[in-house]
Specification:
The complex is a heterodimer of chains A (about 525) and B (about 500).
Chain A (H helix, E strand, L loop, with lengths): L1 H7 L2 H16 L5 H29 L6 E9 L4 E7 L3 H18 L10 H20 L3 H10 L1 H11 L4 H29 L10 H4 L5 H18 L8 H8 L2 H26 L1 H27 L4 H21 L3 H32 L10 H4 L1 H14 L6 H14 L7 H29 L6 H4 L9 H19 L2 H16 L10 H7 L1
Antiparallel strand pairs in A: 1-2
Helix pairs in contact in A: 2-3, 2-5, 3-4, 3-5, 4-5, 4-12, 4-15, 4-21, 5-6, 5-7, 6-8, 7-8, 8-10, 8-11, 10-12, 10-13, 11-12, 11-14, 12-13, 12-14, 12-15, 13-14, 13-19, 14-15, 14-18, 14-19, 15-17, 15-18, 15-21, 15-22, 17-19, 18-19, 18-21
Chain B lengths: L4 H5 L8 H24 L4 H25 L3 E3 L4 E3 L1 H27 L5 H19 L3 H19 L6 H32 L4 H9 L5 H17 L8 H8 L2 H26 L4 H23 L5 H20 L2 H4 L1 H32 L10 H4 L1 H15 L6 H14 L3 H30 L15 H19 L2 H7 L9
Classes of the chains: A mainly alpha (about 525), B mainly alpha (about 500).
Chain lengths: ~525, ~500
């Protein structure tokens, strides 16, 4: 079994969804039940595979290095190879993806958004899953780029066909913003290939090979990647696509967007930009930190100005991703661990909040918070779940959200030695203010929607019922994980820490002790 | 008597390698048979010509395969006609493209009640010019090949002779084409005057030494500008939209893919074999052409309402991408050619596919308006998915073929490691985003909008020849994207055999 997983463990779950989609393509559109079953079976199979990977990963007990490495020729003439592998940084994010997608299938089982068509919807979802898993598994820049882009088309169609009223605008905006970043990112990858000592796209070799690049070139190359990943995160001031995309996307689209797609950007920083170009990262870090804290405050203020529940959650994403980016910008293993935790926690919590927003919309046919109210009266269980998620999102200790935010703030008290302490300590103060604002808008949201008595127009509306079976099934795993990770964060930190330390210490060959950023300071 | 002839006229028949010219001769033979069939059978011949032309093209592939298997570089006429890897890849491409154009034409020409036998005869003649172009390493041969491929195309553009727009298409194409030829000939005469020979290898030696003198500069500029017309690069693209719109759509596909590719073949040979030492002259010129084409083509395409005009301007922009590697050819040498060939091959697959869908949909809507694609997903989902694949491939979205074409271009210009190269890469990156906008506009129409009330939304019937063309192009588009080695396998290494 171990042998099999080591060879095929990553290729099978990556391409299984696309095979499922191909099978669905051959089945006529009107056999809806069959389509749903195929999609569910495929995504569950992927999830089970993910579980096997996890067991084997723990068994290998080598969290810091890449596991399940596959290295095969792909496009020889440009030295792009088919290299897959996961370590403690990518595995949690990959498992998150494998968990979220089947939950999305279950959630949408009986309520596909207009214009219905489960066949096309589920096929897009499966293609999306291939792209997301592949991105986290790829260890070759070109392979990474291809998977990174594969997610664009399905999401574009998901927003554009099944979205809300303003869907056309939101869909193309999402696509254009991301494509702009990734085009420049590709140019950076190529520059890296030609400038580095070894002509390779292999992410495992590049940290060493790129060390010889002149610092001025490094800063430019990093700039291209910064745009590519920063737009995807999204960082202020590139965040404007996000509220539109989230608001217009169908529920499942929003969940995937929040839970996984945004992580592709932050993951890119952690996996590619910083380990390969540490010196340039040190130059850029204060600037990234600044944009991160602006994002935290701006996102929070944006939330306070919203009337629409879904848009509020979208802006809260901007703020939360700001914490993640702040953790990354400190360039310490502590901060990056916090960032990876923050990614997973945000995926679970904000994914849940979007599920809830979708369910509220389905019952009330509106997300206008001035018309909502009394959810705890009409649908008490759903109201409590919303309260639980709001608490998790504002960073209540004991729930997952806390371990994303608090260590990020703490890390910026003591950033890497090359960075100016004063700058990051002032960022820390601003970020801490952001948590207060977060409590403000989330409690305000809860007050508006869950507390009080229902409005007259909905008081006797038979549509407003409590959570259904498919909703429970879809939500339970997320809620449990939010609690478990909150109580016992070591589950995740234990896996990420060796990998983070490893990726930071590998980045400069000459380092004898500590992280490369401490060594760079001595130069 | 005959044996004394050479001593009288001083002419010795050069050795002819019949194997090397077999593809050209096959095309000539099939073209002649098609024309003869017309004379003998008259109207009764109509039933066979399309099939005969298609089979003839496939037969012409056989000597190409045997030549490739043989692998040696063959030269004739003192190096004016060369068969090397470069020539063979492009000859094969031209013939396959022509075969797909025959598939596209079959129903269109027959149902439109146009002259059929002459149509296929002209098509084969034009393809012969292109196939010859791939081997031409001499100014006169290049010029003859260019005229051989152009003149039949002028006629084909005006094939719908009852329609004034088709006449306009043909006339515009003809006038601009002749104008470009004149400019090019003038440039060629300057180069010949300097080198005293028409062979590119000799010209290369003559122009490369010392500083560039004004005659060399003018000669190079005129020749390149002449071909810039052919590839519809900005600002010499003005004929393209009107010609594309007015010409029969299969002919448009032929012009947009094969004729454009032939222009690039000539440019590659000129740049790489003709004046490799004069990169100080041709690089800035091609840089400007590349940037102008991709930017202007894109910006004008944004405002188009007609799908064929949109494809015309998108073709201008794509030409800019294909010119980009040539703008750094002096710095990276043969890599630039590989990038252009990769782009041309992938572009051929995806662009022909898009035109196949346009032809199939126009059979129903009888309209080229982008608005007429509204709601296509509801009544022709298969066609919609195919068109989506082709459009997003043209936009360069992985894992569809176009991404690798764009990638090859980016790779080439970044490899140059110069300010010109990096700025070109950045401009190309921005342009690939702009391009997405108009390709997505068509996709949006098909997927997101509802068909108008009065439209006929029964399911679409597509003739088998079109289905075959769609299948071939879609398979190629996907294959090149997922497994690019399928294409790089042929474009590796030294492609053009230089005599020194």
């Amino acid at each position: 079994m171990g042998e099999f997983l080591n060879d095929w463990g990553l290729s099978i779950p990556t391409f299984l969804p696309i095979i499922g989609a191909a099978v669905m393509l051959l089945i006529p559109k009107d056999r809806e039940q069959l389509h749903k079953l195929i999609a569910l079976a495929t995504t569950l199979a992927v999830a089970v595979f993910g579980l096997l990977l996890l067991i084997q990963f723990i068994d290998n007990d080598n969290y810091g290095a890449l596991n399940f490495v596959v290295d095969k020729g792909w496009i020889d003439v440009i030295d792009a190879r088919y290299i897959m592998g996961v370590d403690g940084i990518s595995l949690p994010l990959m498992l998150l993806t494998m968990l979220i997608v089947p939950l999305c299938v279950i959630y949408s089982w009986n309520h596909f958004p207009e214009p219905h068509n489960p066949k096309a919807f589920l096929m897009l979802l499966l293609i999306l899953e291939t792209g997301m898993i592949g991105t986290f598994a790829a260890q070759d820049l070109i392979l990474f780029f291809v998977f990174f882009e594969v997610v664009l088309l399905p999401m574009y169609f998901m927003i554009g066909v099944w979205g809300g009223e303003n869907r056309r605008y939101a869909a193309i905006k999402f696509f254009l913003f991301t494509l702009f970043g990734s085009a420049l990112m590709l140019v950076s990858f190529l520059a890296l290939y030609f400038l580095a000592d070894a002509s390779t796209f292999d992410m495992r070799l590049l940290p060493e090979a790129a060390a010889g690049i002149a610092k001025s070139s490094q800063v430019w190359v990093f700039g291209g990647m910064f745009l590519g990943f920063g737009i995807k995160v999204p960082m202020f001031p590139f965040h404007t696509w996000l509220p539109d995309a989230h608001t217009e996307a169908p529920t499942v689209g929003s969940v995937i967007l929040a839970a996984v797609l945004l992580k592709l950007g932050t993951y890119g920083f952690v996996r590619i930009a910083i380990p390969i170009l540490p010196e340039a990262a040190a130059e850029w870090a204060p600037f990234i930190g600044l944009l991160a804290v602006i994002g935290i405050i701006y996102g929070a203020l944006g939330c306070l100005a919203q009337r629409d529940l879904k848009r509020l959650v979208a802006f809260s994403s901007v703020a939360h991703m700001g914490f993640v980016m702040l953790g990354i910008a400190t360039l310490t293993d502590f901060g990056i661990n916090a960032a990876v935790f923050g990614m997973v926690a945000h995926g679970l919590i904000t994914g849940m909040l979007f599920f809830l927003a979708g369910s509220v919309k389905e019952r009330y046919h509106t997300l206008d918070m001035s018309r909502l109210g009394g959810l705890l009266v009409q649908a008490p269980r759903m109201g409590w779940i919303l309260g639980f998620c709001a608490m998790a999102s504002l960073g209540l200790p004991g729930l997952a959200g806390f371990w994303g935010e608090f260590p990020a703030i703490l890390a910026s008290y003591n950033p890497a030695e090359v960075l100016a302490e004063e700058t990051f300590r002032s960022y820390m103060v601003i970020a801490a203010l952001g948590t207060v604002l977060a409590a403000g808008y989330l409690l305000w949201m809860l007050q508006k929607t869950a507390f009080g008595t229902p409005r007259e127009e909905f008081a006797n509306d038979p549509h407003v019922r409590d959570a259904t079976v498919s909703e429970y099934l879809a939500w339970a795993p997320l809620l449990i994980l939010i609690l478990v990770l909150g109580v016992y964060p070591h589950l995740l930190f234990g896996a990420t820490d060796p990998a983070v330390v490893n990726s930071l210490s590998e980045c400069l060959d000459s380092v004898t002790s500590g992280t490369c950023f401490d060594a760079a300071a001595g130069k | 008597m005959l044996s004394s002839l050479p001593s009288i006229v001083g002419f010795v028949r050069p050795d002819i390698d019949w194997h090397a010219v077999a593809p050209e001769l096959t095309l000539l033979g099939v073209g002649a048979v098609v024309t003869l069939l017309d004379i003998v059978l008259l109207e009764r011949g109509r039933a066979y010509t399309s099939a005969l032309a298609g089979i003839g093209l496939l037969v012409a592939l056989i000597p190409i395969v045997t030549l490739a298997a043989d692998g040696t570089t063959r030269e004739m006429f003192g190096g004016a006609f060369v068969v090397d890897d470069f020539a063979l890849i492009l000859k094969a491409m031209f013939i396959v493209v022509a075969y797909i154009v025959v598939l596209l034409s079959t129903n269109y020409i027959a149902e439109g009640d146009y002259w059929e036998n002459e149509y296929y005869g002209l098509l084969l003649a034009s393809v012969m010019g292109m196939v010859l172009m791939a081997s031409a390493r001499d100014l006169v041969t290049i010029f003859v090949a260019l005229e051989l491929l152009s003149i039949p195309a002028y006629l084909m553009a005006a094939w719908r002779k009852a329609d004034p727009r088709s006449n306009e298409a043909g006339l515009k194409y003809y006038l601009m084409g002749v104008f470009a030829s004149a400019i090019m000939l003038y440039g060629m005469s300057l180069l010949f005057g300097l080198a005293g020979d028409t062979r590119l290898s000799v010209i290369s030696d003559a122009v490369s030494t010392g500083d560039a003198n004004p005659v060399v500069i003018l000669g190079i500029i005129f020749v390149i500008v002449g071909f810039a017309f052919k590839v519809s690069g900005f600002p010499f693209h003005t004929w393209a939209p009107d010609t594309y719109e007015g010409a029969p759509t299969p002919v448009t596909a032929f012009l947009a893919v094969a004729s454009k590719a032939a222009g690039f073949v000539a440019l590659m040979q000129l740049v790489h074999a003709g004046f490799p030492g004069r990169d100080d002259v041709y690089q800035p010129l091609l840089w400007i052409l590349a940037v102008g084409s991709m930017t202007a083509g894109n910006l004008i395409a944004l405002r188009q309402e007609n799908i064929v005009r949109l494809m015309a301007y998108s073709g201008v922009s794509q030409a800019g991408f294909m010119l980009a590697p040539l703008a750094v050819a002096g710095d990276i040498g043969g890599e630039a050619l590989s990038a252009v060939i990769i782009y041309v091959l992938i572009y051929a697959a995806m662009n022909l596919g898009a035109f196949a869908v346009i032809i199939a949909v126009a059979r129903r809507t009888a309209s080229g308006e982008i608005r007429s694609y509204a709601g296509l997903f509801k009544y022709a989902p298969g066609m919609t998915i195919l068109m989506t694949i082709f459009l997003f491939s043209l936009a360069g979205i992985p894992p569809l073929g176009g991404w690798f074409a764009k990638f090859a271009v980016f790779r080439a210009v970044v490899e140059a490691d110069t300010g010109w190269g990096y700025s070109l890469a950045a401009i190309a990156a921005v342009n690939s985003v702009i391009a997405l906008f108009y390709y997505a506009k068509v996709a949006r129409m098909m997927w997101f909008e509802d068909a108008p009330e009065e439209a006929d939304t029964s399911s679409l019937r597509v003739p088998p020849s079109l289905i075959a063309a769609l299948g071939l192009t879609a398979a190629a588009t996907l294959l090149f994207g997922i497994y690019p080695a399928a294409i790089t396998h042929f474009t590796e290494g030294t492609l053009i055999a230089l005599p020194y």
